[in-house]
Structures are given as structure tokens and as C-alpha cells.
Amino acid sequence: MNIAIIGCGDVGRCYAAALSQAGHQITGVCDSNPGRGLEAYANEIGALLHSSSGPWLAQVDLVISAVFGGVALDVARQSLPDMRKGAIYADFTTGNPGDLRASGELAAAAGVKYADVAITGAIGLGGARTPLLCAGDAADELIEIMRAVGAPSRKVGAAAGDAVALKLLRSVFTKGLEALAVECLMAAEQRGLRQELYEVLSDIDQSPIRSFMETVVTTHVRHAGRRLKEVQEARAQLRQDGIQPLALDGVMALFERTSGSIAADPLLEEPTIQNSLDWLFEQQKNNS
User: Fold this and answer.
1) Same-domain check for residues 28 and 139
2) Of 159, 185, 210, which closes a domain?
3) What percentage of the chain exceeds 90 in pLDDT?
4) What is the dihedral of CA 249, 251, 256, 261, to 10 degrees?
5) What's the pTM value of the predicted model, to 2 decimals?
6) Which ranges carry the 6-phosphogluconate dehydrogenase NADP-binding domain (predicted)?
7) How many CB atoms within 10 Å of residue 212?
8) Count of domains in the chain?
9) What is the pLDDT of residues 181-239, one digit of tens each?
10) Which of 15, 22, 112, 137 could form a disulfide with 107 if both were Cys (CB 3.0 to 4.6 A apart)?
11) In terms of Cα–Cα distance, which of 219, 218, 205 is closest to 277?
């Protein structure tokens, strides 16, 4: 398969190397600001170096876009008209889901198959074996290609943009935990209780993540008021320990909002994950 890589940072180079080793031909690499280092790299892998999209893309079977997310749609708009019908455009950027959905629509209009690909780990650690989420009409074909180079890949969602949307939702959870872990472990270290904290938190390991998330949401809509007091006490302890509670301030604001909503318009039914989320959406609308 003839492949072009647009965007030659860590991601682009990682997959160029892996696909080349798997027997594919990297016929062209493209970067808006090519330097001598990139020129040497292109020569090393036997690829032509380009500074922009153009007619040369008509010769490739697969284009991998690994540019910054903010320019993903512009790059797709520039590249798709020059691609042959039936070729695959795979967007590996962490762009706006709406932009990737729009790119998928442009691809369909051009007769090009499109895959939205979300990298769900650190390329610097996992390399080409970092797990991938794929969406779009070319998802199945791309999964086959990427699995052959060792990348655990699976299809998600129903349309282009769904893969990156799921990656960003995952980030809401993981980066939120990261921020809270920073504050929590700093405070535990300050008090000489870090090892004991790990033991106190060990019960959380016993629940599957889905069960844990749904349990905290369905009980949040009933008990946020009582739990708010505990959040406030925890915040006071962080401040007492000299830790600025930036993440916990956000947690407290959410609990305050839910607590006020419970007082004004409580959920009267027995909470389920569906009616809890519906109630939270309604309260957010009322508070906006």
C-alpha cells in the first residue's frame, strides 16, 4: 500500500516507521515547515518531502493526517480534492469532534473513505502499539491495517468524530482524576499518610469502573447536599496543609449546584442512571 503522512511530529514518524516495517511504502511526507532534519528523515525512509498537499496525493492509497487538532479540518479540506476515489483518509488528530465529522462529510463528497482515529495512550511510551479507537466508513479497513503493525484497534460510535469524542470524554475522567490525585497525594505526603491513604482507597479497586461511575451518579442526585459538607471539610484541610485546592474547588462548585437543585426540584423517582442523567441535564438547563 502506498501511504502519505501529513504532519511529521512524533505521531507521524511513529506510524511511518511502523507501516514501513510492515511492508508498506511511505511515498510522501508533508509538513508545513520542513527543515533539514525532516529532509534527512524523508530520504532515510525513501519518501518525497512536500510542504503542502497537492496532486501528488493522487498516487497514494492511504493518507494519515497527524497534524495539530486545530488545523485538522483545514488540512482535510486542502487534501481531499487531490486524492483518488476509494482511497482512505485517516485523521489521527485530537481535533474538535465537529470538525472531524465535517471532514468525514467532505471525504464522502469527494468519494474518499474516511476514518477518525483516536490514540488513547502515550505514543512516547507505547509507540505503534498504543491502543486506537476508530470511527467512520473506513474504520474496518483501517483497523485491519493498524492491527497488522501491532496496534490494538477497535471500532466505536456510528460516525466520524465519535472516536475523538470518546477520547475527550475519557480525558474528562482521567485528567480530572489526575488533578485530584495531585492535590490528594500532596496533602497525604504533607501529613505523612501517603502509604496509609493507598490502603484506605483500596476498596475502590474492587468495583468495575462502570459500576463505580453509575453508583456515584445515582447517589449524587440524592445525597449531594450531605456530601457537600464533606467536600467543604476536605477543602479546608487542604488549605490548612498549604495545598491550593484548584481541582477540589471545581468539585465543590458542582456539589453546590446539585445541592441547590435538590432543594428546589428533587428527583422523586428511585434513581437509575438514565433518570439521574436526565434530571442533571434538566437542572443544568434551569441553572444556565
Assistant:
1) yes
2) 159
3) 91
4) 150
5) 0.89
6) 2-139
7) 13
8) 2
9) 999 999 999 999 999 999 999 999 899 999 999 999 999 999 999 999 999 999 999 99
10) 112
11) 218
Are both 240 and 202 inside the same structural domain? yes
User: Is 179 found in the same domain as 153?
Assistant: no
Measured in whole angstroms, the distance separating CA 272 from the mean position of its chain's CA atoms is 27
The string of pLDDT tens digits covering residues 29-74 is 999 888 788 889 898 889 999 999 999 999 999 999 999 999 999 9
- CATH number, position 78: 3.40.50.720
What sign does the dihedral 27-33-36-38 (CA atoms) show?
A: negative
**The C-alpha cell that represents 270 in the structure block:** 428511585
Q: Is 167 a catalytic residue?
A: yes
- With beta carbons less than 8 A apart as the criterion, state whether 8 and 39 touch: no
211 is written with which cell numbers? 459500576
Whether residues 116 and 90 share a domain: the answer is yes
**Coil, helix or strand for 103?**
helix
SS3 for 193-226 is: CHHHHHHHCHHHHHCCHHHHHHHHHHHHHHHHHH
Same domain, residue pair 170 and 154: no
Distance CA 269, CA 94 (A): 39
Cell output for 35: 527543515
DSSP structural state of residue 171: H
* Domain span holding position 245: 166-287
Residues 146 and 211 placed together within one structural domain of the fold: no
Do residues 241 and 268 share a domain?
Answer: yes
**DSSP secondary structure string for all residues of 37-81:** HHHHHHHHHT-EEESS--GGGGG-SEEEE-S-GGGHHHHHHHHGG
